[in-house]
Design goal:
Elements (H helix, E strand, L loop, with lengths): L1 H8 L7 H36 L2 H38 L6 H24 L6 H23 L6 H53 L10 H7 L1 H22 L5 E4 L2 E3 L1 H12 L2 H27 L4 H35 L1 H7 L6 H27 L3 H25 L6 H23 L1 H8 L10
Antiparallel strand pairs: 1-2
Length: 462
Amino acid sequence: MAGIGFRLQSYFSSHDLLRNLRGAVYSVFISSGPWLITIFSLAYINSFSATYLGDPDKYLYKAIVSYAYAFSLIVFGAIEMPVTRYLADKLFLKDLHDIRPLYYGLCFCLMIFSLLSCLLFFSFLPVPFFLKVASFFFVTLTMLIWPAMIFLSAAKNFQVIVIGFIIGALTMAFAGKFGLLYGGVGGLIGGMACGQLLIFLILSVCIFYEYESFDFTSFEILTYFRRFKKLSLGGLCYYLGVWVDKFIFWFSSSGQQILGPLYTNTEYDTAMFLAYLTILPALTIFVVQIETNFYVKYLYYFKLLDEKSPLSMLDSAHQDMMIALKHGLNAMIKVQSLLSLTIWFFAADIMLFLKLPTIMISIFRFGVLGTYFQALFMIFNIILLYFNAQKPVLINYAIFFITNAGLSMMSVYAGKKYYALGYALSSFITLCISYYKLNYHLQHTHEYVFMGQSLHQKHVYS
């Protein structure tokens, strides 16, 4: 995201209030675009679906959407970091010819995998054929949007990306409403799939014009999955960790079976859904400030390393890199801490304003703390990956997955007032371990670099 971050920073260098506001809007959309689009579109759809759908159909629709995002993100987690590493290497070497073919090949593989998975899953779901088809397209298109965002990490025309998401969101909302009126739940899901299709097509067109290509497809990425197994497992563990508490509460005694293998837990899902909204500032500041300022110092440090510069120069560059990182993290933590604590304090008022049950107050409060800790440890682990610390990141994310599963089970048995406490504790534990490993790694950067890199030939340090 540093490529986009540099361009976004130019908006904040001016004293023009309108320009700064535009930069803030772009930053939010680029850092959290798909997530925000989904949240606001679903909020609008939920507002009118209650009028036209009975409770069984309403819960069926929500369960299908939740399962679609859970499945697509977990699958995406297994490929996200190897693909990101591949693109980073290609961009570093200025070899852009294989990027567009890789995108075609990756989309093809994901579509085939989604088709086979949906055929298996929907064979156990007694719903009309049209709803199965609409759900397949919604799942598949949702899955394709995530990798498209990675490929656009160095895009120049990010305004088009923002416009694409807005158009897609509006289409998703209004086509969903139209489909609901004339086709029930199947029409609603089909209309939402139309919005996802539009987003995917706009992003794909941006990728098509962004990168040159001489081959139609490329599967070179498969070698990266063999070389970087820890990255693939780390991403898988992270997204399993993100969703495992939801799975546990869906299938717990407080969850509700909707139809066949579809389960949900309305109270837990709604409160956590709102809690994740609170970490937008952290994600935005990371893209615009931390990753860009730190990245400049990071590149300079490894440039000196490639040039076999004196140790004194490396020490100075390392110190500058640490200062840039410290300043960025401090700014982010101050802003996010203030926001999260304020929301935690006014949680009861927020639930009252939204006319939500009081039982959600404690879930929401624990969720706000948990998402705050999660945003921090995610950023710490991204920084670790800059130094190719694949094993520590894999361990950190595996700890998150295991502790979230275990502690969430304990919070289920402890009672409703402790719901989401397991997730918050898991995020805090992972944050502490991630901070320790990052701090240790940064203090011993020279050691890890000299022991882990061979300097007699050109290497990629991304």
